[in-house]
Design a protein that fits this description.
370 residues; alpha/beta; 9-stranded mixed β-sheet; 45% helix; globular
């Protein structure tokens, strides 16, 4: 049986989240060994008795082969922690999902993504702003991420598609359960020109408790989160909170102080979020003005061992020159001089005070050309 099917099995066990999933991998070495383990071994690995009971009940009641065959027949991809295709930004959050179910395709371009979220009870003002932001991002090569709910989410997805861009929808249900049902047509378009993803198993209904945890994925995929309109208890504020914890930038669209839909964004601004006065603010604040060029630029290969070492250390997340030197095992003087030369070649970019990112179309390691 396909090895990834055992990832599906562990993902189905109630009580095995990201932390316990990693513990099982650490103890057993691979998902198959964990899935086939004796109950006593599961207890020794650290699973509580109730979770062990859930584990055995799940294992005895399903056929992994049938589930895997169903995934294939529905053209649903499975992306695990250990695969190159797993989104790099998401992998760096505190509790990345071990398994992502995906309809559509996640591509390199999606590294440049911004989440646009907000209330279901959108006002005409919120609709206009959402359309302006999402279409502007799409036209500039930035993928729009949202949750496919009615209101701001759906409008953001639609505007991105209408502008010819890409969009990713993160569901609070299985990817085979479209919610709300009014968005079935939108879902098919997203699958064709982006991706619809979830960390919930197939058939999982859209229970209310599923949505707050999924919001960490919306922010985790993104460079920044934009809250357009939201009440004071909106799920969009949960996404903004996750974003702040993950080191993402948070932007909020200011609104009338007496309007209920603007209370959430106005509060975020009061607490330190960036006030978003125009879509252009996003590209300028995040240094994304050259996104299209970064995505299509020819990759310049390292010319010596020092360049190769620095290039392989750097990724899409900004890294201080001191950390680069430490990870590469090189003196800071040599690191600084080499990075300056690499920036002139277009291999790296300085995105802040001594903070660098790599400019490359793929994340595979590069070696020096001989």
């Amino acid at each position: 049986m396909e090895e990834r099917a055992y990832w599906v099995g562990l993902n189905l066990v109630k009580g095995v989240g990201a932390v316990r999933f990693q513990k099982l991998l650490d103890y057993f070495g691979d998902p198959r060994s964990a899935w086939e383990a004796h109950p006593d071994q599961l207890r020794v690995s650290g699973l509580p008795e109730k979770v062990v009971d859930n584990f055995i009940a799940t294992r005895d009641s399903i056929s992994l082969q049938e589930i895997w065959d169903h995934l294939q027949s529905q053209e649903i991809d499975l992306i695990t922690w250990q695969e190159e295709g797993y989104p790099a930004r998401l992998k760096k959050i505190a509790t990345p999902p071990p398994v992502i179910y995906c309809r559509g395709e996640i591509i390199t371009q999606d590294q440049w993504a911004i989440a646009v979220v907000g209330t279901r009870r959108i006002t005409p003002y919120g609709r206009q702003v959402t359309e302006d932001i999402a279409s502007f991002l799409a036209r500039n090569g930035v993928t729009v991420v949202s949750g496919m709910a009615l209101g701001v989410d759906s409008i953001a997805h639609r505007a991105a598609l209408d502008a010819g861009g890409r969009t990713i929808a993160v569901l609070g249900s299985g990817v085979d359960v479209i919610y709300p049902p009014e968005n079935r047509g939108l879902a098919e378009e997203i699958i064709g020109r982006g991706a619809m993803i979830s960390d919930y198993a197939l058939g999982t209904p859209p229970d209310a408790g599923n949505f707050p945890p999924r919001n960490r994925i919306i922010s985790g995929l993104s460079i920044a989160v934009v809250v357009v309109e939201a009440g004071q208890r909106s799920g969009a504020l949960i996404t903004a909170s996750f974003a702040a914890d993950q080191g993402r930038e948070v932007f909020a669209v200011p609104g009338k102080i007496h309007a209920s839909q603007s209370k959430g964004p106005n509060r975020l601004i009061r607490d330190g979020a960036h006030p978003l006065l125009s879509p252009e603010d996003l590209l300028q604040a995040l240094n994304l003005t050259m996104v299209a060029e970064h995505q299509t630029a020819r990759v310049v290969l390292p010319s010596d061992a020092t360049e190769a070492a620095l290039y392989n250390v750097l990724g899409f997340e900004p890294m201080h020159v001191d950390e680069v030197g430490s990870l590469a095992g090189l003196p800071i003087e040599k690191v600084s001089a080499t990075l300056a030369l690499m920036e002139l070649k277009g291999m790296v970019r300085q995105v802040g005070s001594m903070q660098y990112v790599a400019v490359k179309e793929q994340t595979a390691d590069y070696k020096v050309n001989n």
